[in-house]
Write a structure and sequence with these properties.
methyltransferase activity; Rossmann fold; Ribosomal_L11_MeTrfase_PrmA; single chain; 2 domains; four-stranded antiparallel beta sheet
Amino acid sequence: MAWLQLRVNATSATAESVGDAMSECGALSVTFLDSKDTPIFEPLPGETRLWGETDVMGLWQASADMDVALNYLQNQFGQLTYKLEALEDKDWERAWMDNFKPMKFGHRLWVCPSWCPVPDPAAVNVMLDPGLAFGTGTHPTTALCLTWLDGLDLVGKTVIDYGCGSGILAVAALKLGAARVIGIDIDPQAIQASQANAERNQVADRLALHLAGEAELPVADVLVANILAGPLQELAPTISDLVKTGGQLALSGLLMEQQDSVKAAYQDQFENLQVSEQDQWMRIDGIKK
């Protein structure tokens, strides 16, 4: 079966109403997308968080009369900026799998999905499939952190992965020689995903996982935090206290225009702060004073 997809540009004030109207005129599903690719914070329970500029995407069967749907929407909201297109029916699972290939970071670290052969059995291979939690290596912020970890001597070290998501950074650190890793996240699904990926990679015995604020944490030799610029600034005192003197820190999840404010939040506690960039996403790393 083929499908018709209608994408309407809306705002945070109108997006939910546009989505409701799409459902009323026959949309089988409605999705909200950030039209400017701006990260947002995790919503509170029962809260719908929408972006400043939001695209609302509705999906209809190919036989639907889209003139009727468009007239209904424009009667409700006036002239709309929209795009209507036909979607080819295909094996979406197969297409998705075909687009996720093994990826190399630094000199020795690979992230490999389970359905692909390992390119280099002698390398450090992290086996990980996309899932419910953020972090597969495809996003520049994750790639920046993986490359940084690959360049460290982690043998015997204690590492904290603050905002562990899928556990990709925690598992990579353990496979790169860390003695133990503590993973922290605010999302219970992230804790579950990290545990499952650690078990798949046979490193779960050296990984401790906690919801944020629910455990007293030790100071670490290395801390990596791949979250967002706002939380990185708000958590600067907490994160700084978790790194031992001479320990190493990497912060990611921030855009180019956010680097100065994040650096300012850490510069009193850390020296040699360096900035690395990939596709306009940044990583800041330094040494605890």
